[in-house]
Amino acid sequence: MQNYFNYFTEIEEHFQKRRGALLLLSTLDWALIETWQEAGIPLDAALRGIDAAFDKYEARQKKARMQRVNGLAWCAQAVMEAAQELREAAAGTAKPKGEDAAGQAESGFEHDRVAAHLDAAAAALDGATVAGDACTATAVRLRELAAAVRRTDAESGDGALSAQDIAAAQDSAAAQDSAAARDLEALERTLTVLEEKLFAALTAAAPEDLLVRLKEHAARELAPYRARMGAVQLRQVERQFAQKQLLVHYNLPRLSLFYMSQQ
Predict the structure, then answer these.
(1) Quick one: pLDDT at residue 85?
(2) Which of 255, 248, 195, 196 is nearest to 217 (CA)?
(3) In the chain, how long is the greatest CA-to-CA distance?
(4) Distance (Å, rounded) from C-alpha 238 to C-alpha 28?
(5) Helices 231-249 & 27-38, crossing angle to 10 degrees?
(6) Are 152 and 178 in contact (CB under 8 A)?
(7) pLDDT (0 to 100) of residue 71
(8) Which pLDDT score, from 0 to 100, does residue 50 have?
């Protein structure tokens, strides 16, 4: 999970460093990073692609005055090329043992903070003005997961439940919750499913004109970068962007642990 969190923050910091000035990433930028993460683009490929894009930009800038890079999407094509190069270079090589376990420490994802994040998201959903049934059901589920996180923390100092503990759970749902709380990556997958179901309910409940406006907004934001992104990636980013804007419009939270406050 720490690696998951680092994926986003390292890309953000590397982009800002290469740009040479602080620039808060936009909703479009975060949507793009999310599509890279979901597509399994290695962090190294993303960083290499950003470097390649800026190296090319700086070489051209010496010959002609160019507009400053103001968005991560400007690097999208270079990132995809870097990912392809890494895949080709890694073909036939074995993955070292223990690599998946490296860097899996949960620093920053302590149980109390995770549970607080889930409770805060549930509270925000309680005030939803659209898709009431879906928001209420999601809030109930988030509170169940928060309780499972706290229960796991209370039952074992290292966050692990024994087989006997799990067998003593009241029902299969409680056992599932405890397993998800013990494994943050499993919890993140559960939150992803809850988000997808919530997005579907919001999309079904939202007025047609609002959805059209959001798609038009996404198209305008993506217009400068269309030549640098493949059709599939473009559709993915457009979808992610529109979903995020829908949540912003209704003042609803992101559920993913990545959006957990780091304060």
Answers:
(1) 87
(2) 248
(3) 71
(4) 8
(5) 130
(6) yes
(7) 82
(8) 92
Residue with tokens 């690696």: 3
| 141 within 8 A of 40, measured Cβ to Cβ | no
Task: Give the per-residue SS3 of the chain.
Answer: CHHHHHHHHHHHHHHHHHHCCCCCCCHHHHHHHHHHHHCCCCHHHHHHHHHHHHHHHHHHHCCCCCCCCCCHHHHHHHHHHHHHHHHHHHCCCCCCCCCCCCCCCCCCCCHHHHHHHHHHHHHHHHCCCCCHHHHHHHHHHHHHHHHHHHHHHHHCCCCCCCHHHHHCCCCHHHHHHHHHHHCHHHHHHHHHHHHHHHHHHHHHHCCHHHHHHHHHHHHHHHHHHHHHCCHHHHHHHHHHHHHHHHHHHCCCCCCCHHHCCCC
Hunting for tokens 């007025």 — which residue is that? 207
Using a 10 angstrom Cβ sphere, with 0-12 exposed, 13-18 middle and 19 or more buried, the burial of residue 76 is buried
pLDDT (0 to 100) of residue 106: 44
- Neighbouring C-alpha atoms within 13 Å toward the C-beta of 200: 8
- Cα–Cα distance, 139 to 119 (Å, whole number): 8
What tokens were used for 196?
Answer: 């997808």
Q: Is the dihedral of CA 79, 12, 224, 20 positive or negative?
A: negative
Neighbours of 25 (CB within 10 A): 17
Q: What is the mean pLDDT of residues 132-150?
A: 95
- Tell whether the model's pLDDT for residue 9 goes beyond 70: yes
Does residue 50 contact residue 18 with C-beta atoms inside 8 Å? Answer: yes
pLDDT in tens, 117-131: 999 999 999 999 999
Which amino acid is located at 100 in the chain? D
| pTM reported for the whole predicted model | 0.61
Q: To the nearest whole number, what is the mean pLDDT of the chain?
A: 78
